[in-house]
Cation-translocating P-type ATPase
Amino acid sequence: MAVWHACTVRQVLSELETDKDRGLAGTEAAARLERYGPNRLEQVRRRSLPLRLLGQLKDPMILVLLVAAGLSLWASGGEDWLDALIILGIVAVNAVISISQEDSAEKALEALRDLSAPMARVVRDGRIQRVPADQLVPGDIIRLEAGDLVPADARILEAASLQTDESALTGESLPVTKGALAPLPEDTPLADRRNMVAASTVVTRGRAVCVVTATGMETEVGRIAGLLLDQEENSTPLQKKMTEISKTLSFVCLCICAVLFGVGALQGRDLLEMFLTAVSLAVAAIPEGLPAVISIVLAMGVARMARRRAIVKKLPAVETLGCAGVICSDKTGTLTQNCMTVVDVWALRSGQRELAITIGALCSDANLEWKGRQPVCTGDPTEAALVYLAAREGLDKHQLEAELPRRAELPFDSERKLMTTVHQRPEGGFRVMVKGAPDVLAGRCRLTPGEAHRVAARNEAMAERALRVLGVAYKDLAFLPRDLNSHTLEQELTFVGLIGMMDPPRPEVRRAVGQCFAAGIRPVMITGDHKLTAVAIARELGIFRPGDLAITGEDLDFLPQGVLEEEIEKFSVYARVSPEHKMRIVQAWQARGKIVAMTGDGVNDAPALKTADIGCAMGASGTDVAKGAADMILTDDNFATIVSAVEQGRGIYANIKKAIHYLLSCNIGELLTLFLATVLHFHQMPLVPVQLLWLNLVTDALPALALGVEPVEDGIMNQPPRDAHASLFAGGFAFRLAWQGIMVGVLTLAAYVLGEYVLSDPGETYAAANTMAFATLTLSQLFHAFDVRSERASLLHIGLFTNPAMNRAFLIGLAMQLAVLCLPPLQAVFHTVPMSPAEWTVVLILAVMPVVVCETVKAVSRAQEARPVQKKVPCAPGIRQ
Ligand code: ATP
């Protein structure tokens, strides 16, 4: 293979059999894709199914259970084979459930990764197209802009002010200047190959046209295997905490089971049976499925958010969203529609209106094409508006470009707030055309004080009408300076005029802003635009309220960070800021203990996006760099989407909490039942081992998962954000778990006692009582799942049928349980006996008791909250009460 950096451009193109302007033909690209494979770095392979099944056996409790079953089989001389078989069957079913749960969680997350996969701009069949980056092949002509992730290794054919950040590859942290340079010596080290760009590096400035030389594992980054393993930790704080907690709980469970076994042994019960009971109880009561349930609920929630246009890239963000106290949002495109229409053109000197429009059109990269009578603009909306304006005034951009061809350019960046192009004049010499923020541009122009005043006044008048204003200027040069930079090109200009464009606010944002205030979240606008434009729009949207302040980046520079922290709550608009200011704003809010969501799209926004607790990148207009740094991508670039994501985030957290609530309170019930039965010296255990294991199957996974998809509760956005540092078990949660668990346990024991001493026939006491306890424990848990659906609201209020998954889980559980209670072959297997109508009545009454009790408790606490607090009226002096 050729050493690409040592070849001339022409050699590279001919070797790769491609054309700089037309690119590859679509058919050829497809054929090459077949030959070279997708442009993707190989992923870590997934484990095979048998291995994963074996992985399930890693759980020591399952092993102990199998050993215990084997022991009891052996001790009974093979008589207990049915029990042993059932235990084996249940263990197998459990393993299959866990694996399929893992699978569905993983698939959901993978689908999300695909959604946020990068795209590339490629020239094929003579047209610029956007294709998924993994479709690139050697020979493709790609276009790169600031903020792009370089999708493959490529030789540079054409470049303007190109700089890349290669730290991911070479460790060099400073940006490297690159260009379409002459061939380099073959032995040039990677870091010095200035005529090449490498996959996984980032364009920090400028733009380029390149030809792809290597893709996928053939790229430089593909060769560095170590990089592939650089996978980010992607579990949420709650997941981590719950994994810890479930370890502790497992230990506690084990201790209780050990005590149970010890006490049982002292009481002279059958040792082996006691052992099997203790182990089965441990298997049933240990919340081993808890971390898996949390992952699934998270994955399902994240999939639901993706359908609502918020793609969560880093799972922890889901939880953090629920704590968000401040949302710092860009203006253009996020709060507004990014749909610009020029409504005002003003020239400083008479007769220069056309010149102003010409500069606007020529000094931009947007293009206008006509599809029939419909104009279709491509490129940045600000620039598209300028090109469209020119067309409206009868100035065709292509024709203008033919007369004044572009020879050089300094691309726009949000730091300089200017863009410059250099054009060859037909009469000789060059014309430098500059457009940009009027206040910045005016400083680069020769203006008399009177003119400067007029420009400023007109700019402010336009800005007050909420217009986005661009200034245009030019200068003529006889020769091109050797160095083309801001210094040589963007000084000593002649000011021409101002162009004002309208960018209407997004209609849905006003409501979203209202929701923010109701939810205790402060919306803040951060924009590169003029202060007056920003304030006018912020006011219209309700972000800027009476008493609020707006501040510019320039003023911010004079404000020490300490003072900013003190005063931060006063500012709701930051105007003319550069990306570094965003960082300071995030940090100041964080210093006030707030969890900050921040939007960003540009290449320089990455640090702020990383610093923010929830970095939100724009899916449509954002750069790859911003997307890479973000926790979440908004596919529609919309502020309202962030607010709905916060709502979803709060809902997901609440649902996870419900699943935990359900699982733990039920486990407490199970433990308590057997523990009390042993300590109180019951003749027999209220449940036998296979029943315990069955119970685990019927009541654990399905209802908990159904709670995980509970619809977001009404009023969740009328509460303040959750305290990120508060314990999950705070606020009475632990207490609720405990008393509800105790309730389930007591009801089960009551069923047993009633069965043994009150209801059953003398000969059959144990089996009947045992069946009643088994039925009560299972059914009461199934009913209890409905209590957990809301912490406060009555079941009737939230609606019995609003969570179909829950109703399905209930019916499946019920059917399974009825089967083992009523079908004779299963009765034999699960040691149950038919129950009399009286026994059934008692079981049903006890099983629905949790609903009755929980509804009553909720009603009482609602009534207490609703009762008006009696205020002490302060007495006026001298008046006695
Ligand atoms: P936001 O940060 O809310 O998206 P913004 O789009 O106005 O706001 P920037 O894109 O950084 O922020 O633009 C800052 C200023 O630079 C604008 O107010 C405008 O005056 C000027 N500007 C924007 N786009 C261009 C461009 N393509 N060429 C020249 N100047 C531009």
